[in-house]
Amino acid sequence: MAAAIADEQRVVYNFIGKSGLRVSNICLGTLTFGSEGTTSRPGQNTEEYAHKVLNRFVEWGGNFIDTANVYATGKSEEIVGSWLQAKNERDRYVVATKVRFNMDPSNANQIGLGRRHITQAIEDSLRRLHTDYVDIYQMHCWDHGVPVEETLRTMHDLIRCGKVRYTGSSNVTGWQMQKLVAVADKLDIPPVATLQQQYNLLCRDGEMEAFQVCKIEGIGVLPWSPLKGGLLTGKFTRDATPTDGRIGWVAQNESRGSHSHPAWSKVKEDEKVWNVIDTCKRIGDAHGKSVAQVALRWLLQRDVVPSVIIGARTLEQLDQNMGAANGWAMTAQEMTELDEVSAPTLTHPHDLINKVNVARYNPWMPEYRVGNK
């Protein structure tokens, strides 16, 4: 039997930007639920075990669940849906899903952010999720093939007919994020409430532009891959090629490397990776916390982040990650140390802008600073 969770360790609830919606500061991502369509990846959960993970997440106080229609080609949504149906407490949970990627390669219109695909995809997602609405419907990635006006009008129509409560974005650049804001304003419709983006101590590119837009406009950032695909768990050393989990899966065949799971040959030669891990370990030792908990806590203390999306292959992994949610915090000095050791390399014009504005800090304009206060 899993250990009881003390009240002071349970999640806290934050508003997602200006939406008025409150969610647990840890969100359970369900990419690992179901094996259909992803049978070549390790660590996929059966429906029975996924339900155990969801139940344990709720014991921690979690109320925020993230999925996507493309995860396991719909099976992830089905598993979440069967759990919601069994719980029969839909109002207690905030469910987010996504639309954009190809659900049927044989059908030229089963992809993208056009009106036809979105309106079909939401019906399919609602059926799989056993619900009549989703709380946050997210554009899974930018679509160069469709005018953004068409996408946002369609999303707003789904809000007006009650099938969607809020809309969100994911995997966009700074100019694309600003375009979403500007077009929504032009159309006089509600702006997107969230940006789901890869964000961790080894991937801070979003801070350059996209998160600045979120800061100014009151849009909540939801980091995915907060542990860089498992690299920031502290389990790995540069001298031993991994064999476990998805890091090991990529290490055994580097052609599988991606933006979230970099090739091991590059990782082991990257001094920054190991300096970040060493700093996390030192800070973690001072608090009695793991490397993973420090990496998650760093995100939770960022001022644009209302909730961090975690994945869990096992109940033990879930409990370990949830240990970052509450009951402790890193000091300002420790946050600064992590900021400095993980600082991204600035390219032009970001390097110039930062350099010439060092003496121009204006405390009345905090929206231009994405930090940890």
TrEMBL record:
<comment type="similarity">
    <text>Belongs to the aldo/keto reductase family. Aldo/keto reductase 2 subfamily.</text>
</comment>
<feature type="domain" description="NADP-dependent oxidoreductase">
    <location>
        <begin position="26"/>
        <end position="342"/>
    </location>
</feature>
<dbReference type="InterPro" id="IPR050523">
    <property type="entry name" value="AKR_Detox_Biosynth"/>
</dbReference>
<dbReference type="Pfam" id="PF00248">
    <property type="entry name" value="Aldo_ket_red"/>
</dbReference>
<dbReference type="GO" id="GO:0016491">
    <property type="term" value="F:oxidoreductase activity"/>
</dbReference>
<keyword id="KW-0560">Oxidoreductase</keyword>
<dbReference type="InterPro" id="IPR023210">
    <property type="entry name" value="NADP_OxRdtase_dom"/>
</dbReference>
<dbReference type="InterPro" id="IPR036812">
    <property type="entry name" value="NAD(P)_OxRdtase_dom_sf"/>
</dbReference>
<protein>
    <recommendedName>
        <fullName>NADP-dependent oxidoreductase domain-containing protein</fullName>
    </recommendedName>
</protein>
<dbReference type="GO" id="GO:0005829">
    <property type="term" value="C:cytosol"/>
</dbReference>
